[in-house]
Amino acid sequence: MTAPPAPPGGAGAGLPQFGAEEMARLLTPARAADALADALRAGLDPEACPQRTGVAVPGGELLLMPAATAAYAGVKIAGVAPGNPARGLPRITGSYLLLDGPTLRPLALLDGAALTALRTPAVSALALRYLAPAGRPLRVLLFGSGPQAYGHLEAALAVREAAAVVVVARRAEGARKLAAHAHALGVAARTGTGSAEEVAGADLILCCTTAREPLFDGRQVAPGAVVVAVGSHEPDARETDTALVRRAAVYVESRAAALREAGDLLVPEAEGAIGPGHISATLADLVAGRHPRPVRPSRPQLFKSVGMAWEDLAVAVAIYRSAAGVSSET
Length: 330
Hints:
Layout: E1 17-18, H1 20-26, H2 29-41, E2 53-57, E3 60-68, E4 72-80, E5 92-100, E6 106-111, H3 112-131, E7 138-143, H4 147-159, E8 162-168, H5 172-184, E9 189-191, H6 196-200, E10 204-207, E11 226-229, H7 242-247, E12 249-252, H8 255-261, H9 263-270, E13 279-282, H10 283-288, E14 301-304, H11 309-324
Parallel strand pairs: 1-6, 7-8, 7-10, 8-9, 10-11, 11-14, 12-13, 12-14
Antiparallel strand pairs: 2-3, 3-4, 4-5, 5-6
């Protein structure tokens, strides 16, 4: 892959800037998932991706996420401000600087929050291509009503047909709005409570929340159902419980990152319920065919995502190249 020429000057000198609307126009969740798969097939090793660096600040947390390939490099500076929603502001803020790989000259500046809102559902969509049941419309249970919930709904619909969607959220108004959005996309949708019946009846459970404790009883998840959990990258926070993790075949983006950051797995491990070898496979294993695609699985399938810098880079590059009219094959 050859990078287009870098613009003259230093950082900020005539750099193309991509906001949320233009990014959505240039790259759909399905094409973003393609970009992630292409990066893995090209030999990118998520296990070697630099660690996320987090710094506590008065307003929340600052995150620094760098990554590089031979052709491109990039870094996301993101803020996580828990108090922002009450101010009518996004919880996630930040910017992404894309650089030419060989020279490290700046190429573009992207809205960091919009990039996160696109790449995280794309990661989940890529996993669902391999894990979600095929051949019939799925009953979807969706926890959350923020940007990630909207993004995951649309990404899931790009991968599989949905028979119905049940939305569960802390705020009733948020749940109603997302259910109405699902209905506008042509899917039967309603709000719910996350009851045992709703959990047991779901083929796909999407967890897109800021919860720090499990959202539902994992014993109720049906064999063969898929659970996607994306809401946390902290070792003491989780959206799924020990019962589900113990029962499930577990898939992650990177073993190293999951065993460093995924509270959904680290809490059960600390309880002695599972060991580090409980992870069945990584996303790269699925894409490369090193792990067989589950066929009529007898236990739940759990994909736990913490979000990684290589994913930001792959999607940012796809946006930049799409804007430049450069084919992904060149």
